[in-house]
Design brief:
The structure holds two protein chains of two kinds. By secondary structure, chain A is an all-alpha fold. Helix content of chain A is 84%, strand content 0%. Chain A starts with a helix and ends with a helix. Chain B is α/β, with parallel strands linked by helices. In chain B, the strands form two sheets. Chain B has a five-stranded parallel β-sheet with strand order 6-7-8-3-9, with helices on both faces. In chain B, strands 2-1-4-5 form a four-stranded antiparallel β-sheet. In chain B, helix 3 crosses helix 4. The longest helix of chain B is centred in the C-terminal third of the chain and has 16 residues. At the A-B interface, helix 1 and helix 6 of A face helix 2 and helix 3 of B.
Amino acid sequence: MPSPTSHWVASARAVFAKDWRCELRSRYALNAIGLFAVTTLVVTSAALGPSGSNQAMAINVLPAILWLILLFAAAAGLPRVFVHEEESRTANALRLAATPSALFAGKVAFGLSLLLAIEALVAPLYLAVMNLNLASPGLFVGALVAGGYGLATGSVLIAALASQARGRSTLFSVLAFPVLMPLLLLAIELTRNSVAGDPAGPALPQLLLYDGTVTIAGLMLFPAVWNP
Amino acid sequence: MVYSCGPPARAGQFAGPGSYTARAMTSVSLVFDGVRRRFGRVRALEPASGRVAAGEALVVTGANGAGKSTLLRCLAGLLAPDGGTVEHVEEGAALTPPERRARIGFVAPDLAFYDELSAGENLEFFARLRGLPAARAGELLERVGLPVDRAAGALSSGMRQRLRWAWALLARPRALLLDEPFQNLDREGEDSVRGLLGEHLESGGLAIVASPIPLEVAGAVSHLTLGR
């Protein structure tokens, strides 16, 4: 008989593996997120050109555009992690079989890995087409990982809330605004510092605090949201 | 609402180890009293009461819309009743709603599985969520006569029903909640799952079976009729 902790970890891993297996066979979220990210990247680069050589533009505008691309790419695919369970009527089987917190952790791990994969594709392309030079590459990667984690966790929690409502996409947008706004502002500031060569400053601990808070809030709220 | 709840015809028997169904020699009972549920202004389930003990089956009948599925969802913990009590006792301990969800076996027409995964992969996923060995999935699929490697999305309606049965019996539950359990099954399939139900009851499990038409279930059976 496995211990409760090892059973919880095994359950979360099973959800993560199942979601990736389904995703690789259907390619729904990958296609939605990838196509949205690449399309907006191409449009942005065509409209602005390699504007990274303009220092003011590079510091003040381009980090914000990068995070807007990532936000809308996430919004195009991550709500599916729960909406798909409700629409395909697999949600009740999950409710009866899975520990809610392990299910949440597995879904967050899936959403995070999906988002990190998109970031790994989009960020180097964005730096290249915008001719954007990084003064602190390590801080840039840190901003992508910490910001991506908060974006994935917040989006999955909002998706769980919205999936049980009728106007799912509207509710997702309405809830995403207040929940994700602080995260985006912090991630943009960190990215800006990585371009300007400034120290991370208070944005990094604040972003990590946000990540921790949204994780704890998700683990505590999710069982109440998920079960009747 | 009218209900009648007759006495059991005979006491339960117990099967030895290796049974496909309920674990042997365990006490279980499910008592519900005045369970009711509304959806907005619609009274989906008028107050319903009944009791079923180890080795017994309760057959719930009633016209379409009488509340049979709603009652079973309330008993499973998938729906919070507006009023009434549900007491599910196993080995002398009353189960909480989360424990009830984890312990019951549930078959219902609106229960679906992942179309992208095979029947075997679906059951193995749910076995991992419940901390069970993956081999259990193969045993049950063989017993209900389903090919392990057929994609769930390519199963006929009768085969999906067999998969629901295999899924419901995965954790050897002591309480089975069966909503139209023989729907879409061919003669061979119905014989197979009736055999499983018989083994479940003989090994000391209990079952609540909902059907719009009177249903023959072997063994100790009582009846509850829902209606307005």
